Amino acid sequence: MSSTVRIALDVMGGDHGPDIVLPGAEIALIRHPDIQYVLFGDEARIREILARHPRLAAASRIVHTDVVVRMDDKPSQALRRGRRVSSMWRAIDAVRLGDADCAVSAGNTGALMAMAKVNLKTMAGIDRPAIACLWPTMRGESVVLDVGASIGASAQHLVDMAVMGAAMARIVFDIEQPTVGLLNIGVEEIKGVEEVKDAATALREASHPGLAYHGFVEGDDIGRGTVDVVVTEGFSGNIALKTAEGTAKQVADYLRAAINRSFMAKIGYVLARGAFRALREKLDPRKSNGGVFLGLNGVVIKSHGGTDAEGFASAVDIGYDMVRYQLLSRIAAGMNNRPQVGAGVGRAVPVTDEMQVSS
Amino acid sequence: MSSTVRIALDVMGGDHGPDIVLPGAEIALIRHPDIQYVLFGDEARIREILARHPRLAAASRIVHTDVVVRMDDKPSQALRRGRRVSSMWRAIDAVRLGDADCAVSAGNTGALMAMAKVNLKTMAGIDRPAIACLWPTMRGESVVLDVGASIGASAQHLVDMAVMGAAMARIVFDIEQPTVGLLNIGVEEIKGVEEVKDAATALREASHPGLAYHGFVEGDDIGRGTVDVVVTEGFSGNIALKTAEGTAKQVADYLRAAINRSFMAKIGYVLARGAFRALREKLDPRKSNGGVFLGLNGVVIKSHGGTDAEGFASAVDIGYDMVRYQLLSRIAAGMNNRPQVGAGVGRAVPVTDEMQVSS
Questions:
Q1: Is A276's CB within 8 Å of B254's CB?
Q2: Any idea where the domains of chain B sit in the sequence?
Q3: ipTM of model
Q4: Architecture in CATH for domain A1-120
Q5: B176: exposed, middle or buried (C-beta count within 10 Å: 0-12, 13-18, 19+)?
């Protein structure tokens, strides 16, 4: 890594493409003047917008691409149409080639993950990548993964996610030993969560310098902030994430309806508007925008497709932090002595060259 | 069913036992004077409380039991200690014997489900029971199942849950063809949800008089009230439920903190307190208290263990409605022409005696 942080942007990704991505990139640049951008997309459109953003223009290099991965392309379609030629592929490819330290895209998740997997491959010893997000909690934020990279997870994959999520949490929260919980349901003796139980055994028995295993957590522990890192497989993780988003909207909606029902309440609202502003800010999904792809040989960040410039800037911020504080080498170090499922008392499992074959 | 609705109560269940169950039963009795209770529990304690509730006493018959299933008993422990002799078992047994039309317990979920399964058995053609709850939405309420009876679900079990959930929704919402959605994640071409896809095919291809299949829904559709019935397997369903509860609490907590931070906001709060009361009422978990066990040869309702009398009364109300509007025969009718997975174009699958063997 050079002293600058070089970020490749899929300028054409997301619902609004360059109109959001470029202003967002500038906001992040103001916060982190050591960013250098490589902008992949329609050169004419990019130049047009950069003309109004001289500061961003000065920190950017443009690479023209013709093909845009559409928001509704299936991963296989995206790969067929966009491999080697799309702005999304090229942004990821810049990371592989060492021309950039990370790639950020607001394009469609399935396509981005497929291209990232095909192009960057998974890290030595890791079967499958995961998507981690920052989840606002009563105590601050937690890292939650997997929120939708793949469905189902072996015990070892859950353990690997614990190690990777903890590496990310060490950076984001600046703590040495983040607490890690495995998401489970509070019904005893129910069949079918053997993977979760086996992962728990491995995590409990092995002491790992990079994390403090807490135990099982339930759905309501996520928002409570019981642990720094919540680990689950991608189906339930995605459903938890979307359900929480829906519930937050629903409560805000109830509140609005209740206030609009009476004149006194409206007056009260005006007096309390500072409090409501604080609430809105706390619930602002833009602040925690940015899914981090973990387990690949490169840093890739997925921004929400429908976000605005402020939201896209948050995704760039996360990418910046992951590069600046060396996510990849932290994960690699963590994997070097990851707890191993079924190893009895956990022991260090060095990553060998042989294991790279499996990626 | 007699002209009264006979409800068996596990008086000893829940965090507070008779102190909550009996006052709760009286609240429900006032709303439904045609309820007759059979009270299972410690006769001396029950009599003591009934002395202060003459109305409830007049509508109740007491059956003394010595054993109480504890809130932290594992299902196997509960069965070992409580089979035939506990208040929980006896309440369920009253349903099996035809002495009651339904059983309500605030005892521990795992034990209650295990006893209900062992004692009542699953209905003809149904492999596994499910737990359905009423979920408050922006448009009113929806039925969501399974929220934790079992983990994982075959395509046919998902279809059966659609049929059962729709039968319940017809009663609760008084509509002929409730809309049904299958919970899924919005990532295309991801491996591992074959069951969900196959269930979708069966539901789409078969026309079923009792439900209107809507398609896939995501986590945020639950709170939005996109469909009347949301179907998923028990792990993700339980996590969605707990996550939503946690998020609602979290938002309320933010709001409280924001209001307490300024004097003006506090004044505003006082003026808008009607609105806040409405919000609290809307979010009141007691109102939607009562998990319905579906797929058994009998109606069993699980009340939240930590609820108060008002909350327990809601659970009794649900049980009352399920009996009064004939949940079981509606499910049986629905199962008679349930869509069959893998049958190509869905066709009616009559339930034969042979199938009862599998229960």
A1: no
A2: 1-120, 125-292+327-359
A3: 0.87
A4: 3-Layer(aba) Sandwich (3.40)
A5: exposed
